[in-house]
Amino acid sequence: xxxxxxxxxxxxxxxxxxxxxxxxxxxxxTLSLGEHRIGVIGLNxxxxxxxxxxxxxxxxxxxxxxxxxxxxxxxxxxxxxxxVGFIFQNPANQIILPIIRDDIALGLAxxxxxxPAVDAAVAAALGRFDAAALADRRAHELSGGELQLAALSxxxxxxxQLVIFDEPSNQLDLKNRALVERTIAALPEQAxxxxxxxxLVSGFDRVLVFDRGGLAFxxxxxxxxxxxxxxxxx
Length: 234
Ligand SMILES: Nc1ncnc2c1ncn2[C@@H]1O[C@H](COP(=O)(O)OP(=O)(O)OP(=O)(O)O)[C@@H](O)[C@H]1O
Ligand SMILES: [Mg+2]
Description:
- Helix content is 34%, strand content 26%.
- By secondary structure, the protein is an alpha/beta fold.
- The protein has a domain of 62 residues.
- The strands form two sheets. Strands 6-7-8-3-9-10 form a six-stranded mixed beta sheet, sandwiched between helices.
- Helix 4 runs parallel beside helix 6.
- It is globular.
- The protein starts with a helix and ends with a helix.
Protein backbone atom coordinates (compact mmCIF):
# COMPACT_ATOMS: atom_id res chain seq x y z
CA UNK A 1 0.00 0.00 0.00
CA UNK A 2 2.83 2.37 0.89
CA UNK A 3 4.55 1.72 -2.45
CA UNK A 4 1.31 2.53 -4.24
CA UNK A 5 0.88 5.75 -2.29
CA UNK A 6 4.47 6.76 -3.01
CA UNK A 7 3.68 6.73 -6.71
CA UNK A 8 0.81 9.16 -6.25
CA UNK A 9 1.31 12.72 -7.35
CA UNK A 10 1.31 15.41 -4.70
CA UNK A 11 -1.07 17.98 -6.13
CA UNK A 12 -0.74 21.44 -4.63
CA UNK A 13 -2.90 24.49 -5.22
CA UNK A 14 -1.26 27.68 -3.98
CA UNK A 15 -3.82 30.49 -4.06
CA UNK A 16 -4.70 29.27 -7.56
CA UNK A 17 -7.66 31.10 -9.07
CA UNK A 18 -9.38 31.34 -12.45
CA UNK A 19 -11.21 34.34 -13.86
CA UNK A 20 -12.81 34.58 -17.29
CA UNK A 21 -13.04 38.19 -18.45
CA UNK A 22 -13.21 39.30 -14.85
CA UNK A 23 -15.82 36.72 -13.79
CA UNK A 24 -14.63 34.33 -11.11
CA UNK A 25 -14.81 30.64 -12.08
CA UNK A 26 -12.58 29.49 -9.22
CA UNK A 27 -11.83 31.54 -6.12
CA UNK A 28 -8.23 31.47 -4.80
CA UNK A 29 -7.71 27.92 -3.60
CA THR A 30 -4.93 26.51 -1.43
CA LEU A 31 -4.81 22.77 -0.76
CA SER A 32 -2.74 19.60 -1.14
CA LEU A 33 -4.04 16.31 -2.48
CA GLY A 34 -2.24 12.99 -2.45
CA GLU A 35 -4.97 10.42 -1.92
CA HIS A 36 -5.65 7.42 -4.11
CA ARG A 37 -9.32 8.25 -4.80
CA ILE A 38 -10.49 11.86 -4.74
CA GLY A 39 -14.07 12.83 -5.54
CA VAL A 40 -15.30 16.24 -6.65
CA ILE A 41 -18.99 17.14 -6.36
CA GLY A 42 -21.10 20.29 -6.57
CA LEU A 43 -23.85 22.02 -8.51
CA ASN A 44 -23.61 22.86 -12.22
CA UNK A 45 -21.25 25.77 -12.78
CA UNK A 46 -19.67 25.51 -9.32
CA UNK A 47 -16.12 25.25 -10.69
CA UNK A 48 -15.43 21.49 -10.75
CA UNK A 49 -14.24 21.23 -14.34
CA UNK A 50 -12.23 24.43 -14.00
CA UNK A 51 -10.51 22.96 -10.91
CA UNK A 52 -9.72 19.74 -12.80
CA UNK A 53 -8.42 21.54 -15.89
CA UNK A 54 -5.91 23.39 -13.72
CA UNK A 55 -4.40 20.08 -12.64
CA UNK A 56 -3.46 18.91 -16.12
CA UNK A 57 -2.58 22.36 -17.41
CA UNK A 58 -5.58 22.61 -19.77
CA UNK A 59 -6.44 25.80 -17.88
CA UNK A 60 -3.91 28.30 -16.60
CA UNK A 61 -4.41 30.01 -13.27
CA UNK A 62 -5.20 33.74 -13.50
CA UNK A 63 -3.39 34.00 -10.17
CA UNK A 64 -1.41 31.67 -7.91
CA UNK A 65 -0.08 28.32 -9.13
CA UNK A 66 -0.65 24.58 -9.25
CA UNK A 67 2.16 22.04 -8.86
CA UNK A 68 2.39 18.27 -9.28
CA UNK A 69 5.26 16.75 -7.30
CA UNK A 70 6.70 20.27 -7.18
CA UNK A 71 6.48 20.82 -10.95
CA UNK A 72 4.48 23.86 -12.04
CA UNK A 73 1.68 22.92 -14.45
CA UNK A 74 2.47 25.98 -16.58
CA UNK A 75 6.22 26.59 -16.27
CA UNK A 76 7.14 22.87 -16.19
CA UNK A 77 4.41 21.67 -18.55
CA UNK A 78 6.86 19.74 -20.73
CA UNK A 79 8.11 17.65 -17.81
CA UNK A 80 4.53 16.73 -16.95
CA UNK A 81 3.46 15.52 -20.40
CA UNK A 82 1.79 12.11 -20.20
CA UNK A 83 1.55 12.02 -16.41
CA VAL A 84 -2.07 13.14 -16.16
CA GLY A 85 -4.85 11.60 -18.24
CA PHE A 86 -8.07 13.56 -18.58
CA ILE A 87 -11.40 12.11 -19.60
CA PHE A 88 -13.60 14.94 -20.79
CA GLN A 89 -17.15 15.64 -19.70
CA ASN A 90 -18.18 15.40 -23.36
CA PRO A 91 -16.44 12.40 -24.94
CA ALA A 92 -17.01 13.84 -28.43
CA ASN A 93 -14.25 16.35 -27.56
CA GLN A 94 -11.87 13.52 -26.79
CA ILE A 95 -11.96 11.34 -29.87
CA ILE A 96 -9.93 12.95 -32.66
CA LEU A 97 -9.64 10.29 -35.36
CA PRO A 98 -12.66 8.90 -37.25
CA ILE A 99 -12.02 5.22 -36.46
CA ILE A 100 -11.93 4.24 -32.79
CA ARG A 101 -8.99 1.84 -33.19
CA ASP A 102 -6.84 4.59 -34.71
CA ASP A 103 -7.81 7.07 -32.02
CA ILE A 104 -6.85 4.72 -29.19
CA ALA A 105 -3.62 3.79 -31.02
CA LEU A 106 -2.72 7.49 -31.21
CA GLY A 107 -1.88 7.42 -27.51
CA LEU A 108 0.73 4.73 -28.19
CA ALA A 109 2.30 6.35 -31.27
CA UNK A 110 5.35 7.66 -29.38
CA UNK A 111 6.24 4.10 -28.32
CA UNK A 112 6.70 2.98 -31.96
CA UNK A 113 5.31 -0.49 -31.33
CA UNK A 114 4.84 -3.02 -34.15
CA UNK A 115 1.29 -3.14 -35.54
CA PRO A 116 0.27 -6.44 -33.85
CA ALA A 117 1.30 -5.05 -30.44
CA VAL A 118 -0.73 -1.88 -31.05
CA ASP A 119 -3.76 -3.92 -32.11
CA ALA A 120 -3.42 -6.09 -29.00
CA ALA A 121 -3.17 -3.04 -26.73
CA VAL A 122 -6.23 -1.46 -28.35
CA ALA A 123 -8.19 -4.71 -28.00
CA ALA A 124 -7.15 -5.03 -24.36
CA ALA A 125 -8.09 -1.42 -23.58
CA LEU A 126 -11.59 -1.84 -25.06
CA GLY A 127 -11.81 -5.34 -23.66
CA ARG A 128 -11.83 -3.91 -20.14
CA PHE A 129 -15.31 -2.66 -21.00
CA ASP A 130 -16.33 -5.68 -23.02
CA ALA A 131 -16.28 -3.29 -25.97
CA ALA A 132 -13.69 -4.76 -28.36
CA ALA A 133 -16.27 -4.58 -31.14
CA LEU A 134 -16.06 -0.78 -31.08
CA ALA A 135 -12.49 -0.85 -32.48
CA ASP A 136 -13.53 -0.67 -36.13
CA ARG A 137 -16.52 1.62 -35.68
CA ARG A 138 -16.69 5.24 -36.75
CA ALA A 139 -16.70 7.67 -33.82
CA HIS A 140 -19.51 9.83 -35.24
CA GLU A 141 -21.82 6.81 -35.43
CA LEU A 142 -21.45 5.76 -31.80
CA SER A 143 -23.99 6.37 -29.06
CA GLY A 144 -22.99 8.70 -26.23
CA GLY A 145 -22.24 5.82 -23.90
CA GLU A 146 -20.19 3.91 -26.48
CA LEU A 147 -18.21 7.05 -27.16
CA GLN A 148 -17.57 7.44 -23.45
CA LEU A 149 -16.18 3.91 -23.22
CA ALA A 150 -13.95 4.57 -26.24
CA ALA A 151 -12.68 7.79 -24.63
CA LEU A 152 -11.95 5.97 -21.37
CA SER A 153 -10.02 3.31 -23.28
CA UNK A 154 -8.05 5.93 -25.22
CA UNK A 155 -6.83 7.54 -22.00
CA UNK A 156 -6.17 4.39 -19.98
CA UNK A 157 -4.11 2.84 -22.81
CA UNK A 158 -1.47 5.55 -22.25
CA UNK A 159 -1.04 4.49 -18.58
CA UNK A 160 -0.99 7.94 -16.97
CA GLN A 161 0.06 8.31 -13.32
CA LEU A 162 -3.10 10.25 -12.43
CA VAL A 163 -6.43 9.94 -14.22
CA ILE A 164 -9.02 12.71 -13.99
CA PHE A 165 -12.56 11.69 -14.89
CA ASP A 166 -14.99 14.51 -15.60
CA GLU A 167 -18.37 12.84 -15.11
CA PRO A 168 -17.43 9.42 -16.44
CA SER A 169 -20.86 7.85 -16.07
CA ASN A 170 -23.27 10.58 -17.10
CA GLN A 171 -24.31 8.93 -20.36
CA LEU A 172 -23.95 5.31 -19.37
CA ASP A 173 -26.62 2.73 -18.80
CA LEU A 174 -26.83 0.87 -15.51
CA LYS A 175 -24.56 -1.95 -16.67
CA ASN A 176 -21.82 0.30 -18.03
CA ARG A 177 -22.12 2.62 -15.04
CA ALA A 178 -21.38 -0.32 -12.76
CA LEU A 179 -18.53 -1.31 -15.07
CA VAL A 180 -16.97 2.16 -14.94
CA GLU A 181 -17.42 2.18 -11.17
CA ARG A 182 -15.57 -1.14 -10.90
CA THR A 183 -12.90 0.00 -13.35
CA ILE A 184 -12.18 3.10 -11.30
CA ALA A 185 -12.19 1.09 -8.06
CA ALA A 186 -9.67 -1.37 -9.49
CA LEU A 187 -7.44 1.21 -11.17
CA PRO A 188 -3.94 1.12 -9.67
CA GLU A 189 -3.49 4.75 -10.74
CA GLN A 190 -4.49 7.70 -8.63
CA ALA A 191 -7.86 9.06 -9.73
CA UNK A 192 -9.82 12.28 -9.37
CA UNK A 193 -13.45 11.78 -10.25
CA UNK A 194 -15.92 14.61 -10.83
CA UNK A 195 -19.40 13.22 -10.60
CA UNK A 196 -23.07 14.00 -10.16
CA UNK A 197 -23.44 10.29 -9.40
CA UNK A 198 -22.93 10.42 -5.63
CA UNK A 199 -22.80 6.64 -5.33
CA LEU A 200 -19.68 6.64 -7.49
CA VAL A 201 -17.70 8.72 -4.97
CA SER A 202 -19.25 7.32 -1.80
CA GLY A 203 -16.34 5.00 -1.05
CA PHE A 204 -13.60 7.51 -1.89
CA ASP A 205 -10.75 8.53 0.42
CA ARG A 206 -11.52 12.22 0.16
CA VAL A 207 -14.30 14.26 -1.42
CA LEU A 208 -14.27 17.98 -2.27
CA VAL A 209 -17.50 19.94 -2.55
CA PHE A 210 -17.48 23.05 -4.73
CA ASP A 211 -20.01 25.82 -4.42
CA ARG A 212 -20.06 29.04 -6.48
CA GLY A 213 -16.41 28.71 -7.42
CA GLY A 214 -15.18 28.01 -3.90
CA LEU A 215 -14.29 24.91 -1.91
CA ALA A 216 -17.24 24.51 0.45
CA PHE A 217 -16.23 21.20 2.06
CA UNK A 218 -13.20 18.91 2.05
CA UNK A 219 -13.24 15.64 3.92
CA UNK A 220 -14.83 12.22 4.24
CA UNK A 221 -17.17 11.08 1.50
CA UNK A 222 -20.29 10.66 3.65
CA UNK A 223 -19.95 14.10 5.27
CA UNK A 224 -19.19 15.68 1.89
CA UNK A 225 -22.31 14.16 0.34
CA UNK A 226 -24.42 15.43 3.26
CA UNK A 227 -22.93 18.89 2.79
CA UNK A 228 -23.69 18.81 -0.93
CA UNK A 229 -27.30 17.79 -0.28
CA UNK A 230 -27.66 20.83 2.02
CA UNK A 231 -26.31 23.11 -0.73
CA UNK A 232 -28.66 21.56 -3.29
CA UNK A 233 -31.69 22.20 -1.04
CA UNK A 234 -30.70 25.79 -0.32
N1 LIG B 1 -13.96 29.09 -21.03
C1 LIG B 1 -14.81 29.75 -20.23
N2 LIG B 1 -15.15 31.03 -20.48
C2 LIG B 1 -16.01 31.71 -19.69
N3 LIG B 1 -16.57 31.18 -18.58
C3 LIG B 1 -16.27 29.92 -18.28
C4 LIG B 1 -15.38 29.12 -19.08
N4 LIG B 1 -15.27 27.90 -18.52
C5 LIG B 1 -16.06 27.92 -17.43
N5 LIG B 1 -16.66 29.12 -17.28
C6 LIG B 1 -17.57 29.50 -16.19
O1 LIG B 1 -16.96 29.15 -14.97
C7 LIG B 1 -17.93 28.63 -14.05
C8 LIG B 1 -17.49 27.25 -13.59
O2 LIG B 1 -17.58 26.36 -14.69
P1 LIG B 1 -17.19 24.82 -14.60
O3 LIG B 1 -17.23 24.30 -15.99
O4 LIG B 1 -15.92 24.70 -13.86
O5 LIG B 1 -18.39 24.25 -13.73
P2 LIG B 1 -18.74 22.74 -13.32
O6 LIG B 1 -18.81 22.71 -11.82
O7 LIG B 1 -17.83 21.80 -13.99
O8 LIG B 1 -20.25 22.59 -13.86
P3 LIG B 1 -21.02 21.30 -14.51
O9 LIG B 1 -21.48 20.45 -13.36
O10 LIG B 1 -22.18 21.93 -15.22
O11 LIG B 1 -20.09 20.60 -15.44
C9 LIG B 1 -19.26 28.65 -14.78
O12 LIG B 1 -19.96 29.80 -14.39
C10 LIG B 1 -18.87 28.72 -16.24
O13 LIG B 1 -19.85 29.41 -16.98
MG1 LIG C 1 -18.11 20.34 -15.45
